[in-house]
Amino acid sequence: MGKKKKGLRVALILLLAGAAAGGFYLFYEQKTQPAHGLTLYGNVDIRQVQLAFHDTGRISRLLVEEGDRVKTGQVMAEMDPVRYAMDVREVEAKVEAQRQKVTRLRNGTRPQEIEQARALVEGNEARLEDARLTYERIKGLAATDFAPQQDLDDATAKLKTARANLKEAREALELALIGPREEDIAAAEAELQAYQAGLELARQRLWDTRLYAPAPGIIRDRILEPGDMAFPQAPVFTLALTDPLWVRAYVPEPNLGKIAPGMHAEVTTDSYPGKIYPGWIGFISPTAEFTPKNVETPDLRTRLVYEVRVYICNPQGELRLGMPATVSIPLDQPRPGPDGPECREG
Q1: Where are the beta strands (DSSP E) in 66-106?
Q2: Strand bridging mode 57-62 / 304-312
Q3: Mean pLDDT (the chain, rounded)
Q4: Which residues form the domain of 113?
Protein backbone atom coordinates (compact mmCIF):
# COMPACT_ATOMS: atom_id res chain seq x y z
CA MET A 1 0.00 0.00 0.00
CA GLY A 2 2.86 2.33 0.74
CA LYS A 3 4.36 1.85 -2.68
CA LYS A 4 0.97 2.46 -4.35
CA LYS A 5 0.48 5.74 -2.47
CA LYS A 6 3.98 6.79 -3.33
CA GLY A 7 3.31 6.08 -7.04
CA LEU A 8 0.11 8.10 -7.02
CA ARG A 9 1.94 10.97 -5.32
CA VAL A 10 4.62 10.96 -8.00
CA ALA A 11 2.03 10.83 -10.82
CA LEU A 12 0.16 13.77 -9.27
CA ILE A 13 3.36 15.80 -8.99
CA LEU A 14 4.23 15.09 -12.67
CA LEU A 15 0.74 16.05 -13.78
CA LEU A 16 0.87 19.34 -11.90
CA ALA A 17 4.33 20.04 -13.30
CA GLY A 18 3.11 19.36 -16.87
CA ALA A 19 0.14 21.64 -16.44
CA ALA A 20 2.38 24.37 -15.06
CA ALA A 21 4.79 23.97 -17.96
CA GLY A 22 1.93 24.09 -20.50
CA GLY A 23 0.50 27.19 -18.88
CA PHE A 24 3.89 28.84 -18.86
CA TYR A 25 4.37 27.92 -22.57
CA LEU A 26 1.04 29.41 -23.59
CA PHE A 27 1.72 32.51 -21.47
CA TYR A 28 5.13 32.86 -23.08
CA GLU A 29 3.77 32.46 -26.57
CA GLN A 30 1.08 35.04 -25.96
CA LYS A 31 3.66 37.47 -24.63
CA THR A 32 6.06 36.90 -27.51
CA GLN A 33 3.30 37.11 -30.16
CA PRO A 34 3.30 40.62 -31.65
CA ALA A 35 0.47 42.76 -30.36
CA HIS A 36 -0.53 43.87 -33.86
CA GLY A 37 0.47 40.77 -35.80
CA LEU A 38 -0.27 37.09 -36.23
CA THR A 39 2.40 34.48 -36.92
CA LEU A 40 1.60 31.21 -38.66
CA TYR A 41 3.79 28.28 -39.61
CA GLY A 42 3.44 26.13 -42.69
CA ASN A 43 5.06 24.80 -45.84
CA VAL A 44 5.39 25.98 -49.42
CA ASP A 45 2.87 24.21 -51.63
CA ILE A 46 2.22 24.04 -55.37
CA ARG A 47 0.04 22.06 -57.75
CA GLN A 48 1.37 19.18 -59.82
CA VAL A 49 0.09 17.87 -63.15
CA GLN A 50 0.48 14.41 -64.68
CA LEU A 51 1.04 14.95 -68.43
CA ALA A 52 0.17 12.24 -70.96
CA PHE A 53 -0.53 11.96 -74.71
CA HIS A 54 -4.12 11.98 -75.97
CA ASP A 55 -3.65 8.88 -78.16
CA THR A 56 -1.65 5.71 -78.42
CA GLY A 57 1.74 5.52 -80.13
CA ARG A 58 5.45 5.04 -79.72
CA ILE A 59 7.41 7.91 -78.20
CA SER A 60 10.05 9.17 -80.63
CA ARG A 61 11.59 12.11 -78.71
CA LEU A 62 11.65 13.65 -75.25
CA LEU A 63 12.80 17.25 -75.35
CA VAL A 64 13.10 18.11 -71.63
CA GLU A 65 14.84 16.66 -68.60
CA GLU A 66 13.98 16.56 -64.92
CA GLY A 67 14.50 19.98 -63.39
CA ASP A 68 14.00 21.88 -66.66
CA ARG A 69 11.74 24.91 -66.65
CA VAL A 70 9.07 24.99 -69.34
CA LYS A 71 6.77 27.69 -70.69
CA THR A 72 3.15 27.50 -71.73
CA GLY A 73 2.83 25.79 -75.10
CA GLN A 74 6.40 24.47 -75.17
CA VAL A 75 6.80 21.09 -76.90
CA MET A 76 8.05 18.56 -74.36
CA ALA A 77 7.71 15.22 -76.20
CA GLU A 78 6.83 13.79 -79.60
CA MET A 79 5.12 10.59 -80.67
CA ASP A 80 5.64 8.84 -84.04
CA PRO A 81 3.22 10.78 -86.34
CA VAL A 82 3.34 8.58 -89.49
CA ARG A 83 -0.02 6.80 -89.03
CA TYR A 84 -1.80 9.99 -88.05
CA ALA A 85 -0.36 11.88 -91.05
CA MET A 86 -1.63 9.13 -93.38
CA ASP A 87 -5.10 9.43 -91.87
CA VAL A 88 -5.06 13.16 -92.58
CA ARG A 89 -4.14 12.63 -96.24
CA GLU A 90 -6.86 10.00 -96.68
CA VAL A 91 -9.60 12.20 -95.27
CA GLU A 92 -8.33 15.20 -97.26
CA ALA A 93 -8.83 13.18 -100.46
CA LYS A 94 -12.39 12.25 -99.43
CA VAL A 95 -13.19 15.87 -98.65
CA GLU A 96 -11.94 17.04 -102.04
CA ALA A 97 -13.92 14.38 -103.93
CA GLN A 98 -17.11 15.25 -102.08
CA ARG A 99 -16.52 18.96 -102.59
CA GLN A 100 -16.35 18.40 -106.35
CA LYS A 101 -19.58 16.43 -106.20
CA VAL A 102 -21.35 19.25 -104.36
CA THR A 103 -20.02 21.80 -106.86
CA ARG A 104 -21.32 19.71 -109.75
CA LEU A 105 -24.78 19.48 -108.19
CA ARG A 106 -24.90 23.20 -107.40
CA ASN A 107 -23.92 24.16 -110.95
CA GLY A 108 -26.73 22.01 -112.37
CA THR A 109 -26.74 20.40 -115.83
CA ARG A 110 -24.23 21.73 -118.32
CA PRO A 111 -25.51 23.09 -121.69
CA GLN A 112 -23.64 20.35 -123.53
CA GLU A 113 -25.46 17.69 -121.51
CA ILE A 114 -28.81 19.30 -122.34
CA GLU A 115 -27.98 19.33 -126.06
CA GLN A 116 -26.90 15.72 -125.84
CA ALA A 117 -30.24 14.82 -124.19
CA ARG A 118 -32.15 16.65 -126.96
CA ALA A 119 -30.20 14.85 -129.65
CA LEU A 120 -31.00 11.54 -127.98
CA VAL A 121 -34.70 12.41 -128.03
CA GLU A 122 -34.56 13.30 -131.72
CA GLY A 123 -32.76 10.06 -132.53
CA ASN A 124 -35.36 8.00 -130.69
CA GLU A 125 -38.15 9.88 -132.47
CA ALA A 126 -36.62 8.94 -135.83
CA ARG A 127 -36.24 5.32 -134.79
CA LEU A 128 -39.82 5.27 -133.58
CA GLU A 129 -41.07 6.60 -136.89
CA ASP A 130 -39.04 4.01 -138.77
CA ALA A 131 -40.37 1.24 -136.55
CA ARG A 132 -43.95 2.47 -137.08
CA LEU A 133 -43.61 2.50 -140.86
CA THR A 134 -42.08 -0.96 -140.86
CA TYR A 135 -44.86 -2.26 -138.66
CA GLU A 136 -47.59 -0.78 -140.95
CA ARG A 137 -46.00 -2.25 -144.04
CA ILE A 138 -45.57 -5.74 -142.58
CA LYS A 139 -49.04 -5.61 -141.08
CA GLY A 140 -50.50 -5.04 -144.56
CA LEU A 141 -48.43 -7.83 -146.07
CA ALA A 142 -49.38 -10.23 -143.28
CA ALA A 143 -53.06 -9.49 -143.87
CA THR A 144 -52.72 -10.84 -147.47
CA ASP A 145 -50.45 -13.70 -146.43
CA PHE A 146 -47.45 -12.13 -148.21
CA ALA A 147 -45.49 -11.88 -144.90
CA PRO A 148 -45.20 -14.51 -142.16
CA GLN A 149 -46.69 -13.91 -138.73
CA GLN A 150 -43.19 -13.90 -137.21
CA ASP A 151 -42.24 -10.81 -139.18
CA LEU A 152 -45.31 -9.05 -137.85
CA ASP A 153 -44.47 -10.05 -134.29
CA ASP A 154 -40.89 -8.74 -134.68
CA ALA A 155 -42.14 -5.44 -136.12
CA THR A 156 -44.59 -5.10 -133.22
CA ALA A 157 -41.82 -5.67 -130.63
CA LYS A 158 -39.51 -3.13 -132.31
CA LEU A 159 -42.31 -0.56 -132.31
CA LYS A 160 -42.93 -1.00 -128.58
CA THR A 161 -39.18 -0.78 -127.85
CA ALA A 162 -38.86 2.41 -129.89
CA ARG A 163 -41.76 4.01 -128.00
CA ALA A 164 -40.20 3.07 -124.60
CA ASN A 165 -36.81 4.42 -125.63
CA LEU A 166 -38.34 7.70 -126.75
CA LYS A 167 -40.21 8.05 -123.44
CA GLU A 168 -37.01 7.44 -121.49
CA ALA A 169 -35.08 9.96 -123.57
CA ARG A 170 -37.76 12.64 -123.09
CA GLU A 171 -37.75 12.09 -119.31
CA ALA A 172 -33.95 12.38 -119.25
CA LEU A 173 -34.20 15.67 -121.18
CA GLU A 174 -36.78 16.96 -118.71
CA LEU A 175 -34.53 16.11 -115.73
CA ALA A 176 -31.59 17.78 -117.45
CA LEU A 177 -33.63 20.96 -117.91
CA ILE A 178 -34.86 20.94 -114.28
CA GLY A 179 -31.41 20.21 -112.77
CA PRO A 180 -30.51 18.37 -109.54
CA ARG A 181 -33.08 18.06 -106.75
CA GLU A 182 -32.66 20.26 -103.68
CA GLU A 183 -32.72 17.16 -101.51
CA ASP A 184 -29.78 15.66 -103.40
CA ILE A 185 -27.79 18.89 -103.00
CA ALA A 186 -28.58 19.06 -99.26
CA ALA A 187 -27.58 15.41 -98.79
CA ALA A 188 -24.28 15.96 -100.63
CA GLU A 189 -23.54 19.07 -98.56
CA ALA A 190 -24.27 17.21 -95.31
CA GLU A 191 -21.92 14.44 -96.37
CA LEU A 192 -19.25 17.05 -97.14
CA GLN A 193 -19.65 18.53 -93.65
CA ALA A 194 -19.22 15.07 -92.14
CA TYR A 195 -15.97 14.57 -94.08
CA GLN A 196 -14.75 18.03 -93.04
CA ALA A 197 -15.43 17.23 -89.37
CA GLY A 198 -13.50 13.99 -89.81
CA LEU A 199 -10.63 15.97 -91.32
CA GLU A 200 -10.56 18.34 -88.34
CA LEU A 201 -10.46 15.36 -86.00
CA ALA A 202 -7.64 13.72 -87.99
CA ARG A 203 -5.62 16.95 -87.93
CA GLN A 204 -6.20 17.34 -84.19
CA ARG A 205 -4.96 13.80 -83.60
CA LEU A 206 -1.87 14.60 -85.66
CA TRP A 207 -1.38 17.77 -83.57
CA ASP A 208 -1.72 15.69 -80.41
CA THR A 209 1.30 13.56 -81.34
CA ARG A 210 3.20 16.38 -79.60
CA LEU A 211 2.95 16.92 -75.86
CA TYR A 212 2.71 20.60 -74.90
CA ALA A 213 3.21 22.29 -71.53
CA PRO A 214 -0.19 23.51 -70.26
CA ALA A 215 1.35 26.14 -67.97
CA PRO A 216 4.75 27.38 -66.74
CA GLY A 217 6.43 24.93 -64.42
CA ILE A 218 9.34 22.66 -63.60
CA ILE A 219 9.69 19.06 -64.76
CA ARG A 220 9.69 17.04 -61.56
CA ASP A 221 9.62 13.47 -62.95
CA ARG A 222 10.43 12.01 -66.37
CA ILE A 223 8.48 8.76 -66.29
CA LEU A 224 8.72 7.34 -69.85
CA GLU A 225 11.57 7.29 -72.36
CA PRO A 226 11.90 7.24 -76.18
CA GLY A 227 10.76 3.89 -77.53
CA ASP A 228 8.11 3.41 -74.83
CA MET A 229 4.49 3.04 -75.87
CA ALA A 230 2.38 6.02 -74.86
CA PHE A 231 -1.22 5.71 -73.69
CA PRO A 232 -3.70 8.32 -72.46
CA GLN A 233 -3.59 6.63 -69.04
CA ALA A 234 0.24 6.58 -68.86
CA PRO A 235 1.84 9.89 -67.70
CA VAL A 236 5.05 10.92 -69.44
CA PHE A 237 6.03 13.77 -67.09
CA THR A 238 5.08 15.18 -63.73
CA LEU A 239 4.97 18.98 -64.00
CA ALA A 240 5.19 21.13 -60.86
CA LEU A 241 3.32 24.37 -61.59
CA THR A 242 5.21 27.45 -60.43
CA ASP A 243 2.21 29.76 -60.59
CA PRO A 244 0.33 30.00 -58.33
CA LEU A 245 2.59 29.28 -55.36
CA TRP A 246 1.45 29.54 -51.77
CA VAL A 247 2.24 28.66 -48.16
CA ARG A 248 -0.21 26.24 -46.59
CA ALA A 249 -0.62 27.22 -42.95
CA TYR A 250 -3.21 26.69 -40.22
CA VAL A 251 -4.82 29.32 -38.01
CA PRO A 252 -6.42 28.43 -34.64
CA GLU A 253 -10.11 29.12 -34.29
CA PRO A 254 -9.68 32.00 -31.78
CA ASN A 255 -7.59 33.89 -34.36
CA LEU A 256 -9.88 33.21 -37.30
CA GLY A 257 -11.79 36.46 -36.93
CA LYS A 258 -8.57 38.50 -37.10
CA ILE A 259 -7.79 37.69 -40.75
CA ALA A 260 -9.64 37.93 -44.06
CA PRO A 261 -8.91 37.11 -47.71
CA GLY A 262 -6.86 39.79 -49.41
CA MET A 263 -4.90 40.86 -46.33
CA HIS A 264 -1.20 41.42 -46.91
CA ALA A 265 1.34 39.08 -45.37
CA GLU A 266 5.11 38.53 -45.21
CA VAL A 267 6.76 35.16 -45.66
CA THR A 268 10.24 34.17 -44.48
CA THR A 269 12.18 30.91 -44.67
CA ASP A 270 15.20 29.42 -42.94
CA SER A 271 16.87 28.88 -46.32
CA TYR A 272 17.09 32.62 -46.98
CA PRO A 273 17.41 34.34 -43.58
CA GLY A 274 16.38 37.97 -43.56
CA LYS A 275 14.66 37.82 -46.96
CA ILE A 276 10.98 38.70 -46.96
CA TYR A 277 8.59 37.52 -49.64
CA PRO A 278 5.45 39.66 -50.01
CA GLY A 279 2.18 37.79 -50.10
CA TRP A 280 -1.51 37.92 -49.40
CA ILE A 281 -4.20 35.67 -47.97
CA GLY A 282 -5.93 34.06 -50.90
CA PHE A 283 -7.98 31.33 -49.24
CA ILE A 284 -9.39 30.46 -45.83
CA SER A 285 -11.00 27.05 -45.48
CA PRO A 286 -14.71 27.13 -44.63
CA THR A 287 -14.40 23.97 -42.53
CA ALA A 288 -12.36 23.22 -39.42
CA GLU A 289 -9.99 20.28 -38.92
CA PHE A 290 -7.59 18.95 -36.35
CA THR A 291 -4.07 20.30 -36.60
CA PRO A 292 -2.00 18.05 -38.90
CA LYS A 293 0.90 16.38 -37.13
CA ASN A 294 3.43 17.78 -39.61
CA VAL A 295 2.43 21.40 -38.93
CA GLU A 296 4.11 23.32 -36.17
CA THR A 297 1.85 25.70 -34.28
CA PRO A 298 2.19 27.33 -30.88
CA ASP A 299 -1.24 26.00 -29.87
CA LEU A 300 -2.08 22.53 -28.66
CA ARG A 301 -2.50 19.92 -31.41
CA THR A 302 -5.90 18.91 -30.16
CA ARG A 303 -7.39 22.29 -31.08
CA LEU A 304 -9.37 22.83 -34.25
CA VAL A 305 -7.71 24.95 -36.93
CA TYR A 306 -8.56 26.29 -40.37
CA GLU A 307 -6.38 25.96 -43.42
CA VAL A 308 -5.04 29.22 -44.86
CA ARG A 309 -3.30 29.73 -48.18
CA VAL A 310 -0.95 32.69 -48.37
CA TYR A 311 -0.03 33.34 -51.99
CA ILE A 312 3.47 34.65 -52.58
CA CYS A 313 5.63 35.98 -55.40
CA ASN A 314 8.65 33.87 -56.31
CA PRO A 315 10.27 35.47 -59.40
CA GLN A 316 13.75 34.07 -58.63
CA GLY A 317 12.45 30.53 -58.11
CA GLU A 318 13.96 30.28 -54.64
CA LEU A 319 10.98 28.72 -52.91
CA ARG A 320 10.57 24.97 -53.29
CA LEU A 321 7.78 22.49 -52.68
CA GLY A 322 7.56 21.51 -49.00
CA MET A 323 9.93 24.21 -47.74
CA PRO A 324 9.06 25.30 -44.15
CA ALA A 325 7.95 28.92 -44.00
CA THR A 326 6.84 31.47 -41.44
CA VAL A 327 3.94 33.79 -42.24
CA SER A 328 3.57 37.15 -40.51
CA ILE A 329 0.23 38.94 -40.91
CA PRO A 330 -0.09 42.54 -39.64
CA LEU A 331 -3.44 42.88 -37.90
CA ASP A 332 -3.60 46.67 -37.97
CA GLN A 333 -4.25 46.76 -41.74
CA PRO A 334 -7.67 47.44 -43.27
CA ARG A 335 -9.66 44.48 -44.53
CA PRO A 336 -9.54 44.54 -48.34
CA GLY A 337 -11.58 42.67 -50.92
CA PRO A 338 -10.90 39.05 -51.79
CA ASP A 339 -8.43 39.85 -54.61
CA GLY A 340 -4.80 40.22 -53.62
CA PRO A 341 -1.98 41.91 -55.50
CA GLU A 342 -0.46 40.39 -58.62
CA CYS A 343 3.11 39.10 -58.81
CA ARG A 344 5.37 41.30 -60.90
CA GLU A 345 8.87 40.28 -61.83
CA GLY A 346 11.29 43.06 -61.17
Answers
A1: 69-70, 75-79
A2: unpaired
A3: 81
A4: 85-204
Does residue 323 belong to any structural domain of this protein?
no
| Residue 37 is assigned to a structural domain of this protein | no
Do the domain assignments include residue 134? yes
My answer on whether 171 and 93 are in the same domain is yes
Find the farthest-apart pair of alpha carbons in the chain and give their distance in angstroms, rounded.
159
Q: Is the Cβ–Cβ distance between 250 and 308 less than 8 Å?
A: yes
Same structural domain for residues 93 and 235?
no
pLDDT in tens, 167-200: 888 777 676 666 667 788 888 889 999 999 999 9
Q: What amino acid is encoded at 64 in this protein?
A: V
Q: Report the C-alpha gap between 45 and 322 in whole angstroms.
A: 6
What pTM was estimated for this model as a whole? 0.60
Cα dihedral sign, 311-314-317-319: negative
Look at the alpha carbons of 219, 225, 230, 231 in this order and tell me if their dihedral is positive or negative: negative
Assess whether 200 and 100 both reside in one domain. Answer: yes
Task: Give the tens place of pLDDT for each residue, 26-78.
Answer: 444 444 455 578 999 999 988 899 999 999 999 999 999 998 999 999 999 99
Mean pLDDT of 221-228: 95
Q: Cβ(151)–Cβ(136) under 8 Å? A: no
Q: How many residues does the chain have?
A: 346
